[in-house]
């Protein structure tokens, strides 16, 4: 096996050609707005929030955005 060294632009060339479905983009946008709203709410609360609580917001964003049943087969 021969190692082919590529710069990032070459490596991502085929990925950049893929079209994004409007429904997927809208779902990402909606979930990102929800995450940012949660972050704004947290900033206004006391500083004793735990890291676990903050990680749950990120987990929910990733789960809701990328755990799409349409992509599972």
Spell the H/E element sequence: HHHH
The count of strands amounts to 0
Query: What overall form do the CA principal axes indicate?
Result: elongated
Number of helices: 4
In whole angstroms, the N-to-C terminal distance is: 31 Å
What is the helix fraction of residues, given as a range? Answer: 55-70%
Oligomer: single chain
Low-confidence stretches: none
Strand content bin: under 5%
Total domains: 1
Radius of gyration: 18 Å
Mean pLDDT over the full residue set: 81
Class inferred from helices and paired strands:
mainly alpha
Largest sheet properties:
none
Any chance you could write out the topology, listing elements then pairs?
Blueprint: H1 8-11, H2 13-16, H3 22-43, H4 51-66
Describe this structure in words.
There is one protein chain. It is built from four helices and no strands. It has one domain. It has helices at 8-11, 13-16, 22-43, 51-66.
Question: Which features would summarize this protein structure in a list?
Answer:
single chain; 73 residues; mainly alpha; 63% helix
Describe the structure in brief.
With 73 residues, the protein is mostly helical. The chain is 63% helix and 0% strand. The protein starts with 7 loop residues before the first helix and ends in a 7-residue tail after the last helix.
């Amino acid at each position: 096996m021969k190692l082919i060294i590529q710069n990032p632009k070459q490596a991502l060339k085929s990925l950049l050609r893929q079209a994004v479905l409007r429904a997927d983009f809208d779902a990402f946008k909606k979930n990102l707005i929800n995450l940012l709203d949660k972050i704004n709410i947290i900033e206004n609360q006391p500083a004793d929030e735990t890291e676990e609580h903050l990680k749950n917001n990120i987990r929910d964003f990733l789960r809701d955005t990328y755990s799409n049943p349409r992509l599972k087969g």
